[in-house]
Amino acid sequence: MSQAALQPSSKLNSSLGMDFDFELDPPPTPVQVREWVADLFRQDRINLAVALAEAGLALYPDSEDVLVIAALVSEVQQDWTYSRQLLEHLIQVQAGNTPAEVWHHYARVLRCLGESALALRQVEQALRQHPQASDLQQLASQLRLDLARPKASTPTSGTELA
């Protein structure tokens, strides 16, 4: 394959609405993937953001940068099952050093899947690691309230949790 075939043309760059040049050989770094996906998302180019996140995952399946942005994109799309898979893999990659914010997203996704009891267990585990995390404390309180209420027949949208 020729070098020209590996580099997007300026016409492609402008059609994507990107103000940056990129090459596929060598591939973009995980940080570049994260930044480009975020830029596309801010430009409301969701399909391109999703495609780039998926390409980033194919290149860097264990990159925290790529896993985080892919999980955020899937959450916004309310693809809770895929978000769960990505966040579980991210937590595994972080090997005991998972930030409170990731635990918050993971528990929110579990709640959206109708798994409030598991979400509460995960938040309680995260609070042992991050006892001062007010967002986790608030989420734990909300989950306890959820579990005290009669069960809903369908998962929630998750928008109730900020």
Short description:
The chain has 162 residues and is an all-alpha fold. It has helices spanning 3-6, 10-16, 30-42, 46-59, 64-76, 80-94, 100-112, 116-129, 134-148.
Relevant terms:
162 residues, mainly alpha, 0% strand
Q: What do these coordinates show?
A:
It is a single chain. The chain has 162 residues and is mainly α. Helix content is 67%, strand content 0%. The protein has nine helices and no strands. It has helices at 3-6, 10-16, 30-42, 46-59, 64-76, 80-94, 100-112, 116-129, 134-148.
Give the topology.
Elements: H1 3-6, H2 10-16, H3 30-42, H4 46-59, H5 64-76, H6 80-94, H7 100-112, H8 116-129, H9 134-148
Helix pairs in contact: 3-4, 3-5, 4-5, 5-6, 6-7, 7-8, 7-9, 8-9
Rounded mean pLDDT score = 84
**Share of helix, binned:** 55-70%
Strand fraction band? under 5%
Number of strands: 0
Regarding quaternary structure, what we see is: single chain
Through-space gap between termini: 48 Å
Overall geometric form: elongated
